[in-house]
Amino acid sequence: MKLVAGNSNRPLAEAIAKYLNIPLTKSDIKRFADEEVFVEIQENVRGEDVFIIQSTSFPANDNLMELLITIDALRRSSARRITAVIPYFGYARQDRKPGPRTPISAKLVANLIEAAGADRVLTLDLHAGQIQGFFDIPTDNLFGAPVFVDDIKARFNGDDLMVVSPDVGGVVRTRALGKRINADLAIVDKRRERAGESEVMNIIG
User: What is residue 188's predicted lDDT score, i.e. its pLDDT?
Assistant: First the structure.
């Protein structure tokens, strides 16, 4: 097994490598003067099971291109299987058409990852579960709640607790967390006038 780290969160990749007790595969990821991404895998990965760790968080476009080009470099290096580990899946909020003549960008990103040559995707807490269905390759959507539960219980066990869902869409996930830590539930009722800007109207609960 080989681990390749992108630049989106190298400390996380290093922590994963330390936990697994395997070194990160040597690679050179840099940018030319015109900001084009260049990737060189500096170890033999022929026939290997390779995991590329790269979120597509801010700056989303730069990190996405870095992921795609790294996958392509691994495929052309004859890796046996390439798994894209994407802790934060950018464009996930664009999982449906909000109106006429608009894209479903999450589906486009899924297509690009497949076209680049990924054999499997592993991500965390997708904004919408149906995004798994956008892929035609195996896709694992893991949940961080078990880790949060242990930490919350260690820090606040016995205290009065309340978990708050930031919107109606997160109620199911928030309620499940609340049950595991024996906490009450509240929901934020908000109105979004424009992208990236929300106004809290009411707190329910």
Answer: 86
Q: Which amino acid is at 73?
A: A
Residues 176, 95 share a domain: no
Rounded Cα gap, residues 170 and 164, in angstroms:
9
Q: What is the mean pLDDT of residues 74-87?
A: 98
Which entry of 30, 97, 179, 190 is annotated as an active-site residue?
190
pLDDT band at 28 (very low <50, low <70, confident <90, very high): very high
The pTM of the full predicted model, rounded to 2 decimals, is: 0.84
In a domain, 11, yes or no: yes
Is residue 20 one of the residues assigned to a domain?
yes
Whole-angstrom distance, CA of residue 71 vs CA of residue 147: 29
Is the Cβ–Cβ distance between 107 and 139 less than 8 Å?
no
Residues 128 and 160 in one domain: no
DSSP assignment letter at 196:
T
Q: Is the pLDDT of residue 71 over 80?
A: yes
Bridge-based pairing of strands 197-204 and 184-194 is: antiparallel
Strand pairing partners for 191? 199
Q: Clarify whether 190 is annotated catalytic.
A: yes
Residues 126 and 167 in one domain: no
Q: Containing domain of residue 164, as a range?
A: 155-204
The phi and psi torsions of 102 (rounded to 5 degrees) equal -125, 155
